[in-house]
Each structure stands twice: as structure tokens, then as C-alpha cells.
Amino acid sequence: MTSALAPDGRLQLVIFDCDGVLIDSEGTSCRLIAEDARQAGWDITDEEAMTQFGGKALTLLKTEIEERTDTTLPQDWPVLMRDRFVEAFNVSVDTIDGARDMLEKVAALGLPVRVGSNSSMLEMNAKFRTSGLAELLEGCIHSAADMNAPKPDPAVYLKAAEAEGVPPENCVVIEDSDTGAKAALAAGMTCVLLRREPAPIPSWPGLVRINALSELPVLLGDALAQQNKASVS
């Protein structure tokens, strides 16, 4: 596979995960899930829930909690939990440090952007509206939950590429979780993993690391410059 960040590749689309990349909502989401997990009999702290539940689809978490506690959650638990998320996000939500500035700089490079997330459209609309990012992402949001194909299924990323009319190999995905990175690589896309040092990252081909969103416009700009240079040489 030719990498969209390689000089001989073609970088045409940047696709962002939502939670942990643009929106700092994992703490709220995992805390609410942990509350239900504890009620079901799982002795898990809010801090442990961040690692245990982060980046996972609610349908998968329902099964995980049930298997861990040998209990049965309501069949519509994912919908009930989603509604609790939306209620919380309509009140308050934070962005990841530097998210707005980064999105504006990526746009200035002439690169289109899309979002592909395990969150529902209802959740993302609330998060982006409350955070003030909605104007930068209008009409560019895709939900794996609403597609019934949560990551690591690559469907949401393939859908985003299709909507933009860009081949998967010309896309770069920005992720923060191993689950999301697996989805991006399975889609045939390059993946930039946002993870602060000293946290490790998997040694998978097609994976690039950044420690802060401020590094991304520089990385993308360098890739575009190299590709332009290669095309005229």
C-alpha cells in the first residue's frame, strides 16, 4: 500500500475520530458507563473505566459488562446510555487542546476533512454544537454506531472516503485508540495516532505517531510539500 504521507502517495482527505481526538468526552462517557457497570456488580473505578471502556462501542460494552458480571442489562441499554451521553454533552463538553486551531490550519492547507466515530450522530451533534466546532464540520460527520458497524470494522472510514470521492489509500485517519487505528489500517488508510509520551503505540505498518494536535498541520504540510516536489521532479 502506498502511504498518503509518502512522497509518492496522494494525500487528499483527512478523517478524524471524534472522542479523544477532537472532543474530550471520554471522561464523561466512561464515568457514566462505570456507574452502570458498578450497579451490575463490577468493582471498577472511574479511572480504570477510562482504560477499560475508552473507544469501544456501546453494543460491545453491553456484552463485556454482562459477561464480567454474569448479569443481563436492558436490551435497549446502548440507547439508554446514548441518551444519557447526549443529555450531558448538551450541557458541557471540552475540546482536545488545540483542536480548533488545528482544524483551521488543516483547512488552510486545502485539505478536506471528515469525522468517523463510534459515537451516534445525536452524540456528535451535541458535542460539536456545545464545543463550538460544528461550523467547521457541518455535513462531514459519519457514525459507525448508526451504521451498526462499530470500529474496528473499517466501514465508517470507508464511508467517509466514499462520501468525499477519495480512494482509501489517499486518506489519513487521526485516531487515539488501538481499536480505531485497527479500523483505519483495515480500510487501507494511513493512521496518525495521537498519543502522548511515554504511552506506547503498536508497531503496525502504516502507523505514525504525534504527541499533540499542534504537530498535525506541520506533518500534513510537509507531506504535501514532498508530494508536490516529487510530482515536478
TrEMBL record:
Keywords: Hydrolase, Magnesium, Metal-binding. SUPFAM superfamilies: HAD-like. Gene3D superfamilies: HAD superfamily/HAD-like (3.40.50.1000), Putative phosphatase, domain 2 (1.10.150.240). The keyword Ribosomal protein does not apply. Its cofactor is Mg(2+). It comes from the Bacteria. One of its GO terms (molecular function) is hydrolase activity. The keyword Hydrolase applies. InterPro entries: Beta-PGM-like (IPR051600), HAD-like_sf (IPR036412), HAD-SF_hydro_IA (IPR006439), HAD_sf (IPR023214), PGP-like_dom2 (IPR023198). Belongs to the HAD-like hydrolase superfamily. CbbY/CbbZ/Gph/YieH family. This is Hydrolase. It comes from Acetobacter aceti.
